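[Discussion] Sanity-checking designs against the backbone

I'm trying to build intuition for which residues belong where. Below is a structure token string of 270 positions. I'd appreciate it if someone posts a full sequence so I can compare it with mine line by line.
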């Protein structure tokens, strides 16, 4: 169970949602957060050139625009006690399988993928996420290396999740980071640990989805999460057979106010 009594998240500069996104991406449908990043983090890039003296300052967002922005949510926003089951007998999470491109989801869809706690989306589907959603990656990277620090022994707890609102222009998708392994590559966690962490991470993100959707009720300036998609998480370089992960996901009890189903997208329909 998550502990929400830890200190609040350290403030860091989240990228603006209207920043350009000119990257291309490759829809690969197995999680592969393997390898160090070969491209710089957007938060670490230096500004190129100077603004002309005659340039007018950018207008401040109106109250309506500002109120429409969500903030990233983490395990610190999850209550100690999850809501009661939504039905009696309890209903378990439903998975539906689809073939096609993960990133062509409708607006306000949440896209889930498995992550390490070192702040790296270096290969496979993780790299595709980084290329398609560079601003979301910057938030994830800062969360792992500024709010937490793997090297300092204060890494993100495995079995938790980070929910990032739409911040990349032209890609109105929420991004859900499921922390299922501490490291990537040869140092990744064992299969049993990854599977166990997957269950609690997905429970945590579903509770965050509930909080977001309840928070937008009656607020015309905000949009909630319309649906949830994922690839076959853990089945790339994390080395976990998809059947093991699927079994854990189907065993999750749907709580009051939770989304009851998740779409699993696969390019080959395997």
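Best answer:
Here's mine. Compare freely.
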């Amino acid at each position: 169970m998550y502990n929400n009594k830890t200190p609040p998240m350290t403030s860091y500069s989240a990228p603006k949602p209207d920043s350009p996104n000119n990257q291309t991406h490759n829809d690969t449908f197995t999680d592969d957060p393997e390898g160090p990043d070969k491209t710089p983090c957007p938060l670490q890039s230096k500004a190129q050139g100077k603004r002309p003296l005659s340039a007018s300052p950018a207008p401040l967002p109106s109250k309506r625009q500002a109120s429409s922005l969500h903030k990233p949510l983490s395990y610190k926003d999850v209550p100690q006690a999850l809501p009661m089951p939504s039905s009696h007998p309890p209903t378990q999470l439903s998975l539906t399988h689809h073939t096609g491109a993960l990133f062509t989801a409708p607006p306000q869809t949440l896209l889930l993928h498995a992550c390490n706690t070192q702040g790296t989306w270096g290969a496979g589907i993780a790299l595709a996420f980084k290329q398609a959603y560079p601003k979301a990656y910057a938030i994830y990277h800062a969360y792992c290396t500024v709010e937490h620090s793997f090297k300092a022994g204060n890494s993100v707890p495995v079995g938790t999740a980070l929910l990032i609102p739409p911040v990349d222009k032209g890609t109105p998708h929420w991004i859900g980071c499921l922390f299922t392994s501490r490291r990537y590559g040869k140092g990744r966690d064992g299969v049993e640990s990854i599977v166990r962490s997957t269950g609690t991470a997905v429970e945590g993100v579903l509770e965050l989805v509930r909080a977001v959707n309840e928070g937008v009720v009656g607020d015309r300036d905000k949009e909630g999460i319309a649906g949830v998609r994922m690839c076959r998480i853990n089945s790339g370089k994390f080395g976990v057979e998809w059947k093991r992960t699927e079994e854990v996901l189907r065993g999750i009890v749907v709580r009051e106010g939770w989304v009851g189903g998740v779409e699993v997208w696969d390019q080959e329909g395997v």
